[in-house]
Amino acid sequence: MAGIGSTSGSTSGLPPVQFSGLVSGIDWQGILQKLTQVAQIPGVQIQGQIATLTGQNTAYTTLLSDFQTLQSSLAGLATSSNYFAQSATSSQTSILTAQQTSGQTAAPGTTTIQSVQLATSTTATSGSALGTSFSAYYSTAPLSQQPTGITANNGTNSQGLPNAQGSVTINGVSVSYDATSQSMATIVTNINNALHAAGDTNFSLTYNSGSDSFTMTDTKQITLGSPSDQGNILQVMELTSSPITGSGPYTLNGTKVGSLQQNTALNKTNFAAGPINAGTTFSINGVAITINPTSDSVANVLTKINQSNAGVVATYNQTTDTISLASTAPGPQSIVLGSSSDSSNFLSVVALTPSTASMTAGKQAAVEVGGQFYYSNSNTVTNVIPGVTLNLLAPTTTPFTVTVGSNAQPATTAIQNFVTAFNQVIDDINKDTVPASFSTGSAPGSTAQQTSNGGPLASNFGVSDLRDQLDQLVQQIVGSGAFQSLAAIGLTLDSAAVGATSSSSSSSSSGSSSTPSSAFTGTTGKLAFDTGAFSTALQKNPQAVNNLLNGLQGQLGIVQQIAAFTQTVTGLPTSLPFISGQPLLPLPSGKGILQSYVDNNNTQISFLNQNLDVINQSVRLQQQQLEYEFNQAESQIAMLQSTGNAALSQLGVQLTTSGSGH
């Protein structure tokens, strides 16, 4: 948009008048200032004209922005799906949520869901425990160098250095150990002896080589640990993640001690199936995973699997000492393990080959309605209620309902956005076109006096006409459908008392007073939106509401007519969706009405600025000429005074004043 013009020349740019009649005593400076002010009068008038035009351009720019917002709001009204929006509500949102399927229409009503079964993913799990059994190393020292799932240590001191000894507290008895010199068998013996020596003779800590796990029993409640403990022996024994059972005697069964070392380089990891080879690739679902046996750990490899496009999630289960792969997509699809091009035996050492893995096929989701089951490979189900999407969250065999009804919110929001934009246009036009007000005195024949300025666009009846055209568009009767006007769906022009006058509020140009005080009910031109009436109309006949606003085949609706009008005002095309069978809106020609007003004003401002520059230059030249002439006059007066003084001096007359004589 072209910029708003402003004053480029100014009468205040003239040099100040600084001149005095030091010889003659004449106030040349006052005379010069008066003459300069008279010469500046045309320039001051031009500045006023420029200020008026600039104020108009500011108002035009605001209106242009208002109309553009109005134009944008029409897109929501032209979106036909807003009038057919529906809500689908589940009575058990913890079991499933429901919503209208995009682009589809659902029949209103209530459906009873009798049961829900979630879709599950196919899983492949290691067919055996992955880490070597600890039984062969139970009596081997030092414990810290043996293949346990968690490497044993004595803890560290406040400086972060390794402790010489660790300590563990069981049933309130603290026992010291040294993982860097003792075997697990020695530490277990020391724990049992310490508890027995403390009087807890029924306490027992034993290692079962068959299950590769520890069992702790006692006739009294077992307690483990203390804030003063050092090291991690209980974690190494895998006794911290299992529950204590019983009520006397009490039992704590640990998990497998020789579990996989997840953070050790693959070529040093304690795989029960044997060492990993030097190969660098293996495949899942045809996707190759690249590894480095000397630097990658099991944890690294699982991360690489999860970040690949293999379509599975890989996890390690510390309790079972196995790796599981779960398909990212639910349903009964297979997981393809390995390929003939693999060079690494990683899948073999983690028992995830077609022959060693335990494969569980995923299940389809199932929703039961009226004794019939509807199946889906995912937990997003669209084939149960036409036009409704069900998002399954949890299984159930307890019946509940899904209710489908109309949803007025999208259309209501679109209408409200339009009304807000429409009323902003009307507000600003009303404010900018308000006429100046005048009053007359009480005396007969008194002259009318202006009491307030009008709006910046009061003289432009074309702007007022824009308001009138908008109001005509929203009041028209169209078509022959169930709803033939916006008023029928809750959109009406507001009511206001207008035309109020008083005997002293206005007058004619001849000075006669106006008619006596009167008022009548009119409108400001703004829209009032009755949401209740609109919701009722929409629920009764959404197609008729859509037809009223968006027309029928071969006919432009009210929305498209307003869009065509706003195009002429803004000079910008609308972004309304094309409606099949309707004529296309003509593209706007020219710059738009408001931009044309701005451009015309800018042309006038440019011309006035040029005239102002000429006037200022003329005033400066006049000022310079007058200063020169006044200086010449002072010089002549000074010379005459000097000559007169000399003559008088010869006659013996003494002058006693300067600038005036006797």
Short recap of the structure:
By secondary structure, the protein is α+β, with helices and mostly antiparallel strands. Helix content is 32%, strand content 17%. Helix 6 packs antiparallel against helix 7 (461-475).
Number of helices: 11
Q: Rounded to an integer, what's the Rg over CA atoms? A: 48 Å
Domain count: the total is 4
Structural class based on helices, strands and sheet pairing? alpha+beta
What distance separates the N and C termini?
73 Å
Beta-strand portion reads 15-25%
Overall pLDDT confidence = 86
Number of strands: 27
Low-confidence stretches: 4-10, 497-520, 656-662
Description:
The chain has 662 residues and is an alpha+beta fold. The protein folds into four domains: 20-85 and 407-435 and 454-500 and 528-638; 86-119 and 364-406, no CATH class; 150-253, no CATH class; 272-360, no CATH class. Helix content is 32%, strand content 17%. The protein is built from eleven helices and 27 strands. It has helices at 28-77, 184-197, 233-236, 298-307, 346-349, 409-432, 461-475, 531-540, 542-550, 558-570, 593-650; strands at 86-90, 96-100, 109-113, 115-117, 123-125, 166-170, 173-177, 204-208, 213-218, 244-245, 250-253, 281-284, 287-290, 312-317, 322-327, 358-360, 365-369, 372-376, 380-381, 388-392, 400-406, 437-439, 449-452, 491-493, 496-498, 520-522, 527-529. It has a four-stranded antiparallel beta sheet. A four-stranded antiparallel beta sheet has the order 8-9-11-10. The longest helix has 58 residues, at 593-650.
